[in-house]
Amino acid sequence: MSSGVTQADPGVVPLSEPADGVGEVVSTPRSLDRVVTAFGAGSGPVAADAERASGYRYGQATYLVQLRREGAGTALLDPVTLPDLSAVADAVGPVEWVLHAASQDLPGLAEHGLRPPRIFDTELAARLLNLPRVGLAAVVADTLGLGLAKEHSAVDWSTRPLPVDWLRYAALDVEVLVEVRDVLAARLEEAGKAEWAAQEFEHVRTLPPPAPRPDPWRRTSGTHTVKNRRGLAVVRALWEARDRNARERDVSPGRVLPDRAIVAAARAMPRTAGQLAAVPEFATKGARRRITTWQRAIDTALALPDAELPAIRGPRTDGPPQPRTWADRDPVAARRLDAARAIVAELSDTHDVPAENLLQPDAMRRLCWSPPEPAGAEEIAEFLRGRRAREWQIGLVAERFARGFADA
């Protein structure tokens, strides 16, 4: 197995400048036409990356798209001024696109007309090869012996104009991505995992958008410390007021009002704006500027009749209960889960693949809690297909699960 070295390790050569230098950001139809022509005449896969402004802006909009192809060089595209980039995808045709952690970038690329017909995900390939670290810098160092700086990974990419140092960083993210892909592909082939990887890549490429979460306000960090329904109503009201404000201003909700302030208010139950301003978590200038907005939301929650207060527990999901309760609630299901975990752990060791990549833990729990009847290999295989398990995973676990469940 590779060592997983980083750019600070001996023998790693820093990658500090793109081979073609840092070009201008493509932000006009005329400059986009030139990119389309160049990429259409290029050869081989397209390396792609996208930058968002998470933590700064509301939502997950893409603010920079980086593309590179042999013979075409690197293009840095501004999707704010050029929201329709589909001409690039049309020009390159049915070629493979190479991304790192593709599930993070594919939705944003699709919003701008970039929908790869095939992908190679270097992060996912690294996971299947069980590399000790799978961040882009670590994988570049492991495969090519090059050091890739990541100091601008969390900057505000909605900034205009973008600083040259940031653009250099962005260009380097796709500079050697195809070369990394070639090394990883060879390793996957040698390990007998090339087909596994192909199925995983297609699974990621075709994932449907996630369903909206019920009661998203319950994800406010620290909500578990609020022990009564009235307090939860305050959390909900402040979360909704913050979300409206953040959406209107296109600012990350956490910058409008931190979660810790919402929870502190829910525990303090202030009756006036003055009392709220005395809560230490509301001492910041931003929180004080909108103190009447926050108090108005709290007042609404405090005035709710008991029948309209949120329940202590969130909406029930269709998933199984927490495994720690299984031994008391369904001892046979608990034994099935123990057997399944042991099988996956053994396969993980045998094939040198992380257990969570051998089978999604949620699919395994659902299977063990409510298995099909009868729980034979074919029935288990069909159940797992319904949970979007891949055929290579099913081939490894279905028969073993059937035998393990029979003995549970």
From TrEMBL:
Gene3D superfamilies: HRDC domain (1.10.150.80), Ribonuclease H-like superfamily/Ribonuclease H (3.30.420.10)
Domain (HRDC) ranges: 228-308
Coiled-coil segments on the chain, per record: none
Any one Pfam family match given in the protein's UniProt record, by short name: DNA_pol_A_exoN
Record region (Disordered): 1-24
Any one Gene Ontology molecular-function term assigned to this protein's record: nucleotide binding
GO BP annotations listed: nucleobase-containing compound metabolic process
The protein's name: Ribonuclease D
Taxonomy of the source species: Bacteria, Bacillati, Actinomycetota, Actinomycetes, Micrococcales
